[in-house]
């Protein structure tokens, strides 16, 4: 019987249309590819090929990796960021190879014993979802899937700040992740013009970091809302430990159920990706209704760089099935349109794409340093899922496939009064990050 590895490598090079800078090792001990390659792809079981054959795209590759049927030895960044390796292999349907190439690949798969019924997807995969998309009940379920996996696991990845959004590397790459997250929270507070005595609503408050920072350093009263049970438990504990329980209230509450305005300012950091295009205008109207005249909204969100009509995937994706079910990355233009339809005046927009790439690489390093503990806490499949997700996301930001933006919007007062000084330097205030 012919060794498996050269045959497997030949199939994927046929899909890519060129040689691949990877080494392949298979279940029979055979190897193929350049010995000096920075990464080896290990097909531990034939089932890895069967998963890819049934889903010849990124989802099939992800299923093989998450299940442990396929492994990666070496630098995962090097594999995903090779000369368009994943773009060539994961994004192409084997059927597009043409009849001759497809027949040749099918013969190879048959010879390798890869044909058979579709393997059961890893248990972490979300397929069936109950209720209408972005209903309160369904949103609560999918948010729980992502966030209620253990606060200790998130602490391994995020570090002591427990901030799960793009940091702001004002001090350069030599600064620490904690410094950069402090500077991001401070940047948001300065953009919102927070002052003692103000009332802040933090929508999607996570583990309470923004609420604690605003109360401790700016003397404001904060209401933070999230629909993650585990986030609420830890956020309340952290608020108490920080000594700001008299100024911070953490609620288990959907943003659509907040009706105790007016607030002087609203921060929405990494939350509106869960809102969805169909609910964006409603979200904007809700935020507008909760603000006093002259109040500011800071909307910090990941964005698609593709037009909305081009951003929908015809086939299921790894991110939707494993990471953010029902999550939607909207183009910045759509976010601005939604906020303006809600009555807001857009006063500023800052792109932080490169900052998120640096943040994600720090999170990857944190996870890799604590790999054994992560596996102990959540199991190997979930740890693998997160390593793949964080690594691929870092590269997506570096290559400009997705972005992240902070949009500052204002509810005008009478006769167009915004409450903002005329220049950015004046309304942004001093920067103490240095």
UniProtKB/TrEMBL annotation:
Aminoacyl-tRNA synthetase found in the keyword field: no
In Gene Ontology terms, what is a biological process of this protein? lipid biosynthetic process
InterPro entries for the chain: CFA/CMAS (IPR050723), CMAS (IPR003333), MeTfrase_dom (IPR020803), SAM-dependent_MTases_sf (IPR029063)
Q: Identify its protein family.
A: Belongs to the CFA/CMAS family.
Q: Which organism is it from?
A: Rhodococcus spelaei
- The residues covered by the Polyketide synthase-like methyltransferase domain are 153-392
Q: What's a Gene Ontology MF term here?
A: methyltransferase activity
Keyword Transferase recorded: yes
Would you say which domain of life the source belongs to?
Answer: Bacteria
Q: Which Gene3D superfamilies match?
A: Vaccinia Virus protein VP39 (3.40.50.150)
| Entry protein name | Class I SAM-dependent methyltransferase
**Any idea which UniProt keywords this protein has?**
Lipid metabolism, Methyltransferase, S-adenosyl-L-methionine, Transferase
Pfam (any one): CMAS
